[in-house]
Design brief:
The complex is a heterodimer of chains A (about 110) and B (about 110). Chain A has no helices and eleven strands. With about 110 residues, chain A is an all-beta fold. In chain A, a hairpin with a 6-residue loop joins strand 4 and strand 5. Chain B is mainly β. In chain B, the strands form two sheets. In chain B, strands 2, 4, 5, 6, 9, 10 and 11 form a seven-stranded mixed β-sheet that branches. Chain B is globular, with a radius of gyration of 13 Å. Chain B starts with a strand and ends with a strand. The chains are: A mainly beta (about 110), B mainly beta (about 110). Chains A and B meet through strand 4, strand 5, strand 9 and strand 10 of A and strand 5 of B.
Chain lengths: ~110, ~110
């Protein structure tokens, strides 16, 4: 079964601190893995995308890693800011009949306190 | 700038009513998606369309149908709304069939079925 598991479910950190979010998946055949940020009341916005051959991708203070062998990914946030408070969603897409079908994780809710 | 709009931000309907949720994108994208998002469950794919008049079932199509008569518009239909369809509904579009293409999400419609 195609599944994406994220941990932790929620996380509270102080402003300026770093944190790492985890994503494990069983999606097959693997096409790509993407991390989204979803602010409250808004649709998700893409942060990074990695294909099978990529093992790290950065977007400002966000750095994603991918280990395709162990089917694990992480999202590292450096020097957190209050605006980082959001839900972070891991999405793994599989190829199917010429199209690409995404499977979403349940998300990690991050709260950054001043 | 890609824009995906949804017809309503909030909607309240009664059990048994027929409900239409409309989604419009202005970037000539080929692929469009409908998701529902529930607390603790993440986003789940209801239906997607990779071309005009084409549709494919996602993970939870039961109780829903879709229509794509024009490229820019993708409608989600609840033939007879039920209380368990109370949820946040998110529409997304994607340029084409490349797996690495980004999905762009609308702001969501929060539907309450009484």
């Amino acid at each position: 079964k195609n599944q994406v598991e994220q941990s932790p479910q929620s996380l509270i950190i102080l402003e300026g601190k770093n944190c790492t979010l985890q994503c494990n998946y069983t999606v097959s055949p693997f096409s790509n893995l993407r991390w989204y940020k979803q602010d409250t009341g808004r649709g998700p916005v893409s942060l990074t995308i990695m294909t099978f051959s990529e093992n790290t991708k950065s977007n400002g203070r966000y750095t994603a890693t991918l280990d395709a062998d162990t089917k694990q990914s992480s999202l590292h946030i450096t020097a957190s800011q209050l605006s980082d408070s959001a839900s972070y969603i891991c999405v793994v897409s599989r190829s199917s009949g010429g199209s690409y079908i995404p499977t979403f994780g349940r998300g990690t809710s991050l709260i950054v306190h001043p | 700038d890609v824009k995906v709009t949804q017809s309503s931000r909030y909607l309240v309907k009664r059990t048994g009513e027929k409900v239409f949720l409309e989604c419009v994108q202005d970037m000539d994208h080929e692929n469009m998606f409908w998701y529902r998002q529930d607390p603790g469950l993440g986003l789940r794919l209801i239906y997607f369309s990779y071309d005009v008049k084409m549709k494919e079932k996602g993970d939870i199509p039961e109780g829903y149908s879709v229509s794509r008569e024009k490229k820019e518009r993708f409608s989600l239909i609840l033939e007879s709304a039920s209380t368990n369809q109370t949820s946040m509904y998110l529409c997304a579009s994607r340029p084409g069939t490349r797996g690495t293409d980004t999905q762009y999400f609308g702001p969501g419609t929060r539907l309450t079925v009484l």
